[in-house]
Every structure is written in C-alpha cells, then in structure tokens.
Amino acid sequence: MTVLVFDWFLFIEKLILIAIIIFASLGIALYTTFAERKVAAILQDRPGPNRAGPFGLLQPLADGLKLFTKEEIIPNHSNKVLFILGPGLAMTAALMTCAVIPWGDKVVMFGREIQLQIADINIGILYVFAVVSMGVYGVMIGGWASNNKFSLMAALRGASQAISYELAMGLSLIALLMLTGSLSLKSIVTQQVGTFWNIVYQPLGFIIFFVCAMAECNRTPFDLPEAENELNFGYHQEYSSMKLGFYLFSEYINMFISSTIMATMFFGGYDVPFVTSHLTNPNIAAIVGIVALMIKVVIFIFVFMWIRWTIPRFRYDQLMNLGWKKLIPLALANIFVTGFFILLKENHWRF
Amino acid sequence: MQLLTSRAKKVDRAPMSFLEQIYLWNIIKGMIITFSHIFKKQPTIRYPEEKRAFSPVFRGLHVLNRDEEGREKCTACGLCAVACPAEAITMEAAEREEGEEKLYREEKYAASYEINMLRCIFCGLCEEACPKDAIYLSETFTPADFNRKNFIYKKQDLLIPNPIENPKGLAIAKGQEELV
C-alpha cells in the first residue's frame, strides 16, 4: 500500500531539480575556466582567449573537446581501480554539496509549491562539511594510486592542508551558528531576509571562512598540492584525458559551491535587501532570488580569481603557521566574543 | 660607506607583527594594484586582423625592378653578388639578341638570377651596390615553407610585375591596391 501513498510529484519535481542543478553547476564550472583565463588576462593587461567564437566564448567547449580526444594513459604500476576512482570521487564530492543549498525560495507551479532546494535537511552545514572532507579522498587516492613520488607528496600536502584548514573553518562557523541557532541552510537564509545579513555580525568569521574556503579549494595562494616548481605538476601528474579534466573541473565546481555557501551563510543567499520582502508573487520572487544569488556567487568567484592572480603561493611552513597559529586562535577569539555578546543580549544589555 | 643615490632602502628585519603575519593588509594592497590594471590599455595587437606597420626603412624580400616600359633593368654585372656578405646571390649573364629590346634594357641581362633566402641576412648591401637600381628590398618578409628548395628564389619569383602587361599586379606589388 505504500506505493499509493508515495508522492510521485515530489519524486519527479526533485528529479528535475537535481538534473537542472547538476547541469547548471557543470555549465557554470565550464565557464568559470573561461572566466579564470579572461580575468587573469585582464589583470595582466592581455586580451585573453578570443579566437574561438565571439569574445572567445566557445573556448571552454574547445578545451573540453580537446580533453576528451586526448589519449587516455593509465600508468603500468598504478593501482588501476583507485586510479580511476580518484577523479570520480573528487567530482562526486564536488557535485554532492549543491544538494542542500537553497537556490531560491519557492516556485508555485501546477498548483504546487516547489522548494528550490533539493533537500532541506536540518544539519545542512554538517552535511556540507562532511562532503567537502570527502573531496580530500579524491586528491589522496589519485595521488597515491599514481605510484609516483611527486603525486604522493602532493596528495599528502593536499590532505594535511585540507584537514588543517577545515578546523579553522568549522570554528569560524560555530560563532555564526551560535547566532542563527540552526544548522539548516534554508532557515539561515530566511533569518537574514528583511534584516541585516550575517556579515554584519560576523565580519571576522567571514574572513576566516573565506581564507579557509580558498585553502579547501586548493586555490592560489594555497595551491601547494599542485606546486609545479616543487612537485612537477601535483597530485594529478599521471592523469591525462578526461580524468585530468575531472580533477581540474572539480576544482572549479568546488570554487562555485564554496562561493554559494559563503553567499548563503554570510550574504543573505537569495535575499535582495529592501526588495525580497515586498515581492508578493512567489514566482517573481524566486527568479529575483536566483539572479541575486548568482550575482553574489559571480562576485565571489571573481574575488577568488582576483586573489589568485595577485599573490604568489605560500611556503609550506607559512601555510601551516597561518592555519594553526593565526586562524584557529582568531576563530576561537571570535567564538568567545560572539558568545559574550549573545549572553549580554539575552541579559538585556546589562552585566 | 657613502651612498651614491638616495634610493637605497634599509632592509627591515624586525619580526612581523600579528597583523602582518595574517598577511591580510598586504594582500589587499596587492589586490588594489592588480585591480587598477583592469583599466589599463592593453599593448596587444590582434595580429591577423591588425598588423603592426613596418618601419619605412624595413628591408624585406628582394625585388628585381623594371623600367617604365617594362624592360628588366638588371645587367648581370655581379656587383650585388660581390657585395653580398652572405653569398646568397648567384647569377648567369647572357647577351641580348636581336628583337629582345623590349625585354631587357641593355645589351647584357641576367639569364638566371637566384637568391637563397635562407642565406640572405637582409642587410641591403645588394641594393646599395647596384649601379642600375635593379634590385630593391621590399616591405614584405619571406613566407614560411616546408621545403628548403622553395627558399631559393628564381628570377621569376623576384621580378616585379610588368607595368605594361600586368599593371594591376604591379599596383598590388607596390601596395597601392589591396590583394583580393
């Protein structure tokens, strides 16, 4: 009898939503590679790729086609199962995070309210953290399975870096979660709609989170796992063809997802100040919300790239120093200060 | 020691403060610099659409000249070959026959005239040496090729189009008309 109770509309609507979100993430990641090259070029007074299509807009398709048609090489002494599993895992972990992000409020269609979020789970943030940590396995397994000293070394670096920065990242979020009192991303956003964004209350927490997100994405200045001058090419040295493409791609998807998380947590997600709370038509509100979220994400991605093309790579000891000796104490101090003010507020601003 | 300029700066070896150790301020300073570059003019020339003009004294591919009646000026005197430091020019002379006055300006002409463009250094000494104004360095460069043999330019490759028989070709060669 359970078959009859099963809500097929919900199933179909979620299926469509998942398909849209995954393809959108892939498409955005595709064009982020292009944007990266363009931003780099513009910051360096160059025109950048401009041959394929108008303004070079077909460049990412040409790059993808090139990666697909390249010879696929699996080294003789590699662990073949893990070698293939590595990039897949990196990609899966990167894509899985978008399940809990609220892309907009809700759409009313065919008399149904469709939430623009794949799953509103009450531990959304924990889920994100769990999945992001899974991404380290992609790097680790890929580096180890290649049976190459440099790859292994790069994988070790990547893993230790990710683990170190996850700590500060988690601590910086604790202060925020103390304010919101919820781990669900949806309720964190709805709390910010119509009032101040969380960045107003947690500027330090945001900076720490931002730095850690950069380290998690293996972006410059924290791209030690792919330090060409020390490690030849990094953990994906032995990879070719689309498996290499998967690694490179997952980095861009990670960047997109972490930008979305930052926009959601600290910058009000799909909220447009003074506008969202006055929109009565839910469909228009949803469209405005999605556009607003995307604009915020694009700004964050630009800042990621801007930083990458501004500063050089950290030395390994500097990286660890920054993570353990600077960011973690700062995050802890942030927790204490936030806690102090929360208590003070509950006590009606009296000691 | 006496400093020669006032530009020397003393190296600051003081340990970094906590704020400096977070690098934030210095990174922001760097980011302001890179951001200002967005608005700078790009020095890039979009090559196939846009070409950089050659200097007026550019020395490119050789041209064997004709006079205004379309007769070859070269008399195969060999002065250019003598002047050539790279020994890129070879020629064979021949005597003008009866009835060839329309082809060659003087009694002697070059039956064959070859320049090896792989040896040529485009110094322009042949141009200076020529007493008859027969050889000139044009404003185009040697096109690339897959075969070494094709870099030895024969007389037919070097001769400028005949102004009487082929005025359009001459205009194109002189750059007065666009190549269609």
Could you characterize the architecture of this molecule?
- The complex is a heterodimer of chains A (351) and B (180).
- Chain A has 13 helices and 2 strands, in the order ααααββααααααααα.
- Chain A has helices at residues 2-5, 8-43, 59-69, 80-96, 124-145, 149-180, 185-192, 198-201, 203-216, 228-231, 241-266, 282-308, 316-346, and strands spanning 106-109, 112-115.
- Chain A has a two-stranded antiparallel ribbon with strand order 1-2.
- The longest helix of chain A is centred in the first third of the chain and has 36 residues, at 8-43.
- In chain A, 43% of the residues are buried.
- Chain B is an alpha+beta fold and 180 residues long.
- Chain B has helices spanning 18-21, 24-36, 79-83, 125-129, 155-158, 167-173, and strands spanning 62-64, 89-95, 108-116, 135-137, 152-153.
- Chain B has a 3-stranded antiparallel β-sheet.
- Chain B is elongated and about 100 Å long.
- Chain B starts with 17 loop residues before the first helix and ends in a 7-residue tail after the last helix.
- The chains are: A mainly alpha (351), B alpha+beta (180).
- The interface between A and B is medium-sized, with 17 and 19 residues.
Rg for CA atoms of chain B: 29 Å
Strand order of the largest sheet of chain B: 2-3-5
What does the average pLDDT of chain A come to? Answer: 84
Instruction: Domain count of chain A, please report it.
Output: 1
Main sheet summary of chain B: 3 strands, antiparallel
Structural class of chain A: mainly alpha
CATH A-level architecture of the domain at 62-173 in chain B? 2-Layer Sandwich
Tell me the span between the first and last alpha carbons of chain B. Answer: 70 Å
Beta-sheet strand percentage of chain B? 5-15%
